[in-house]
Amino acid sequence: MKKLSATAICLILAFASALFYSFKPKNETRNISDTVHIEGGLISGIKSPVGDVIAYKGVPFAAPPVGELRWKAPRPVPPWEGVKKCDAFGPSPMQAKPTPFMVYTPEFLIPEQPMSEDCLYLNVWTKAHNGDKKPVFVWIYGGGFGSGGTAVPIYDGEAMARKGIIFVSVNYRVGVFGFLAHPGLTKESPNKASGNYGLLDQIAALKWVKKNIAAFGGNPDNVTIDGQSAGSMSVNCLVASPVAKGLFKKAIAESGSYLLSNPTLKTFDLAAAEQQGVKLAEAVHATSIEELKKVPADQLMKFSGRYSPIVDGYVLPEPVAKIFAAGKQNNVPVLTGWNADESFIASFKNKDDYIKQVKEQYGAKADEFLKYYPANTDEEAARSQVKQSRDMIFAASGYRWATLQSKQDKAAIYVYYFERKLPATADYVKYGAFHTGEVAYVMNNLRFLHRPWEPADYKLANLMSSYWINFITLGNPNGPGLPPWPDFNNFTKQAMVFDKASGKQELPDWRELEFMGGN
Q1: Three-class SS of residue 37?
Q2: 235 contacts 227 by C-beta, under 8 angstroms
Q3: 501 in any annotated domain
Q4: Among 58, 188, 266, 277, which is most buried by a count of CB atoms within 10 Å?
């Protein structure tokens, strides 16, 4: 028998190898490549140190909203040649310099640079395999509609992606760039509306997810939106908006909604918001929209005030509370809640001044108010002021959402109460279970927040992130090995209380919340 040549042997081995791979079992899978084709072109990501999660950071989902596109709805992203390297966050939205304040250390803030009007970028974390259809989680940050961005350290998506979902975080325009209305802008809009550009950015990102997330191993028909603070209020607006219909299946709202009037972030009607825009144009000496679009960003920010979502007749055809009262919202399962000590009170009134203010403000209802928010001592008055602030700004509107959804017999709604006082040094211990404190637990990201963590904190982070993963996956937070979490109803008022020991119980302070208008 003749000996085969080395070349022939190589050819046979190559053929056998190709034959093997062409007939590999159907259930064999391969990791998503770090090069993905999406709308616009090819992108590459960066693998985590352990190699099982790939992050794609700074992915453009719309054209840069600059020049003529300032104060316009997002436009399609321009295509690019070659492979776009997506290994770093895109620029954060234009806003004031991020400076630590109160309990909010740098872990809660965007990096100082880069910052730009060219900010419409999102980020994707995945450990999917080809052919997977994993549930998708879309994170919308807070910041009072005037600050924030996806590059905040505690918003990292790797830990949640490792638990089996696709994690997406999206930038949206804030402040004067995200929510300016003006008669000239309304006139040039095909929808005869202006002002809700930040919400339109979120909607554009959700449309991008619908079109592109399958390339990352995600299921475009199983998307959950989640936001905290202004992000929570954004979620509430998206659930209310007909423009967002069909773009998500579930919603999570952490600390905030527009179901009751909010003393810090009010929704204006279009006419009132347009007048705010007219005053801004006068302040910067712009006599037309064209001139206003050419004013430098830093100059605009010097003269601008507070901006937030607008009842514009398009994104929000009516006030959010009215849409919900009529049952016209998008009917999706909801998970919502708030924290025990969220308040932004800088200075406290003593008991006498506090009682005087209550009597002036509540008149005949003052005695009932003081039953729920007492002031027998200065210390008690201070605690009541924190509680009152929490309820007026965050808790009562969330409770209103829960009671209304239960009453309307809509999809299930689950309520939580975050009571864990975060471990802290003497400088921060007074803030307790503060506003935003739950986020690092939800995302299983305690490693990004520098605190003297205890074993109970890691246990709580694993518990909360597991509940969130279950809800993102199936619309129900319950799962094997977890304490049962019943959906909320107006009879038992059961909620999940998160602390060192967590479990279901009657929602704390629900009577106070009903007094505040939450029923």
Answers
A1: strand
A2: yes
A3: yes
A4: 277
* Residue 11 belongs to a domain: no
Whole-number pLDDT of residue 276:
94
Average pLDDT over the chain, rounded to an integer: 91
Residue 28 annotated in active site: no
Question: Quick check: is 308 in a domain?
Answer: yes
- Structural domain boundaries, residue 418: 336-519
Give 172-196 pLDDT, tens digit per residue.
999 999 999 999 999 999 999 999 9
Would you tell me the crossing angle of helices 230-240 and 197-212 to the nearest 10 degrees? 70
Question: Is residue 9 scored above 70 in pLDDT?
Answer: no
The CA distance from 101 to 350, in Å, is: 24
Band the pLDDT of 23: cuts 50, 70, 90.
Answer: very low
CATH number of 361's domain:
3.40.50.1820
DSSP 395: I
For range 471-476, the mean pLDDT:
98
- 235, 86: one domain: yes
Residue 22 has pLDDT above 60, yes or no: no
Domain end position, chosen among 298, 332, 366: 332
CB burial of 207-245 (b: ≥16 within 10 Å; e: otherwise) equals: bbbbebbbbbbbbeebbbbbbbbbbbbbbbbbbbbebbe
Query: Do the strands 268-269 and 54-60 form a parallel or antiparallel pair, or are they unpaired?
Result: unpaired
In a domain, 12, yes or no: no
Which of the following is catalytic: 147, 229, 406, 465?
Answer: 229
User: Is 255 an annotated catalytic residue?
Assistant: no
Residue type, 412: A
Write out the two tokens for 342.
């969220």
Q: Can you tell me the distance from the alpha carbon of 469 to that of 447, in angstroms, rounded to the nearest whole number?
A: 19
Residues 6+ apart with CB under 8 A from 127: 31, 52, 53, 54, 161, 162, 164
Q: pLDDT per residue over 28-63, tens digit each?
A: 345 677 799 999 999 999 999 877 899 999 999 999
Q: Please, is 377 exposed, middle or buried when counting C-beta atoms within 10 Å of its C-beta (0-12, 13-18, 19+)? A: exposed
From the candidates 117, 158, 342, 438, give the one annotated as an active-site residue: 342
Q: What is the count of structural domains for the chain?
A: 2
Q: Which of 280, 264, 274, 260 is nearest to 311 (CA)?
A: 274
- The pTM of the full predicted model, rounded to 2 decimals, is 0.93
Q: CA-CA distance, 75 to 172, in Å (whole number)?
A: 13
Structure tokens at 458: 């890691």
Whether residue 410 sits in one domain with residue 265: no
Chosen domain end from 332, 364, 386: 332
